Amino acid sequence: MTLLILGGSGQVGFELRRQLAPLGEIVAPSRAELDLMSAAKVAAALDTLRPTVIVNAAAWTAVDAAEKERDAAQRLNAELPAQLADFTAGGGCELLHYSSDYVYPGSGEAPWQESSATGPLGHYGATKLAGDEALLTTAPEALILRTSWVYAARGRNFLDTMLRLGAERERLGVVADQIGAPTPARLIATLSLLALRARRAGRLAGGVYHLATRGETSWHGFAREIFALARARGVPLALADDQAVAAIATADYPTPAARPLNSRLALDKLERALDVRLPDWRTQLALTLDERLG
Question: So what does this thing catalyse (predicted)?
């Protein structure tokens, strides 16, 4: 079996290359080897490789930049998934794709269900939703895993940024009115392996599933937990204590793209389908930080 991983150099892609290796031969072309912005080059690669499984971890994830680089975001987040859906339609190749909590309007406090009405706040979310809809229309047997607040032991992400700023600054302000569940790339890859195995065994139907950690926090709460764990592990910080991390409102930190205040995701559907209990965000943060610190 040949597994084609797109976006294999990203933080999720790196973990996928490790976790999915038991399933078969992994092919994960770099950006230099396969230009995903070119539909023609992607088509040629698909025709040459004829993969058994495609795992699409490629995406335009720069939320603010998507408001200006609209064509690039549209290509990676909407057109590429649509192209993959066309290739896999009719069987012969399985498709696993990753989506985002940004497809929802971000209002209220109740966790979003897979069946909840969508309503993206910006171009990034709109392009992610367009990609989902293309799969659901053309390749309904494909698996779509919607996740939130992704970070990892490697690469540039919130964990990396907080550790850097915590070492440089004596005081820091972090948004406290956006609520979600920090989800490490390693966990996403582990559940992806379980999902693909269940799919091949005929125990998992296609469609949308939420994949995140249990529990909820704000970015401010996430940051404070990072610093508490780092301090306990002897990581030098310029921040004196927890009081040096101030809670600020989204309105006090304007960005080009609007952020959802509510990124809570209901997890019951995936847990029932795979017979698992997703772990709490705090335990996963501790594991990810330990991996980062080596």
Answer: dTDP-beta-L-rhamnose + NADP(+) = dTDP-4-dehydro-beta-L-rhamnose + NADPH + H(+)
